[in-house]
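Review this today:
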Amino acid sequence: MSGEAAAPDSGVAAAPRGAALAADAVSAGYGGRAVVHAVSVHVDPGEVVSVVGPNGSGKSTLLKALVGVVTALSGRVLLDGRDVTNWSPEVAARSGVGYVPQVDDVFAPLTVRENLEMGGYLLPTRVVPGRMARVLEVFPRLGQMLGRRASRLSGGERKMLAIGRVLMLEPRAFILDEPTANLAPALARAMLDEHVRQLSRTGASVLVVEQRARAVLAVSDRTYVMTGGRCQLEGTPAELISSPEFVETFLGGGRARPALVGDE
């Protein structure tokens, strides 16, 4: 698209061919009741695509529907064009999708080494040391604390471990739910700039839900904006920032300052 950010009639256009991961008009929720309504997003190989919006807009529910944690009530989830709607989380992992939830993202009683080994549980035993070595090349700080329990890590270290654990399987697509939650502003920017962007440089697709709108726009190729369980805007960061509607409502350009404006 060009010019200004699009305001789709229903969930944004369906995924184009070639998208590694896509939701095609997905509705999802709890107890048979939808909280996400006909949302379509797609992520191409090597892209960072973000989803922003106020608290309660359905962002995390959408991610959970992509990996089978929450039931998709209608629509399709596509991986490399293959319909994988309502797959189980284990099938998602085996198929090349790495999911990092906002909470319960590591095994707190286990050491860093043990967490990484758990991340490679689907791998042949002989492969695990080599994979771990590659993860430590991406997150060298973890190599200095392999014997430390995850419960003793700082917030930033814990999130590095969570992503590193998923990286053990070398997924083709990463789904990250609030990777900067509970991090100080400087650590949050470093997490996005240094680590989230780095994942896409490997050729993987990265879909990230993030509450810090300004910070995630800086590392995104494209961004979707959700409110009320629906996708309301979509565009590149430059397109969204040129949209008065987006700036006024989501970047604090006027009186409305919803919860996502958390970028110090």
Remarks:
- The chain is about 30% helix and 25% strand.
